[in-house]
Amino acid sequence: xxxxxxxxxxxxxxxxxxxxxxxxxxxxxxxxxxxxxxxxxxxxxxxxxxxxxxxxxxxxxxxxxxxxxxxxxxxxxxxxxxxxxxxxxxxxxxxxxxxxxxxxxxxxxxxxxxxxxxxxxxxxxxxxxxxxxxxxxxxxxxxxxxxxxxxxxxxxxxxxxxxxxxxxxxxxxxxxxxxxxxxxxxxxxxxxxxxxxxxxxxxxxxxxxxxxxxxxxxxxxxxxxxxxxxxxxxxxxxx
Length: 239
Hints:
Blueprint: E1 2-4, E2 14-17, H1 26-41, H2 49-65, H3 71-85, H4 93-104, H5 114-124, E3 126-131, H6 135-144, E4 153-156, H7 157-160, H8 167-176, E5 186-190, H9 193-203, E6 206-210, E7 227-229, H10 235-238
Parallel strand pairs: 2-3, 2-5, 3-4, 5-6, 6-7
Antiparallel strand pairs: 1-7
């Protein structure tokens, strides 16, 4: 399904695209990393532990996006916070995090249509990855998935010193593009309203919301994407 809220610019010269839950399936990677950490630590967790992780992890990353927490603080506290919510304060969250994140950093499950979408975009535009993560981690995961060869450059918060959706993140991205397009000549594709669409809209980009989870539209008109799709195979129809 495609929903257009804004006319596509006449000229698009560059495309920024998110990685996790846009090109790589974070959910599958999380399940794999969770199972690995259980095996490595020998912990026995209740059936609702993974769902508790998913709920708390979303909140922690929202705090990172708002500048209320650093990624280092997230990794230092994530599983201790989850274990506390489960009433398992006796377990070592840092030990579990080390196993979980170590595995998460090297797993890569491409979302259906990712390679075809990148091949199409790279044939028409200068294509850049844009992610809130570390450069080496994301580059290695893209390489493992066979997706790394499509990009002109990879922009990640760990290298740029700022997170999406801040203006500083996009300033740093545009500062590295050569030749440098105008914001109105640039599209941003991502799955997150808070990190991708809000930041892209504020910076004047043409925003494509990959709404694969079929979430309701944001109530705030300022957060409405330029166009909404629910499949990567729709990208060539809108760009």
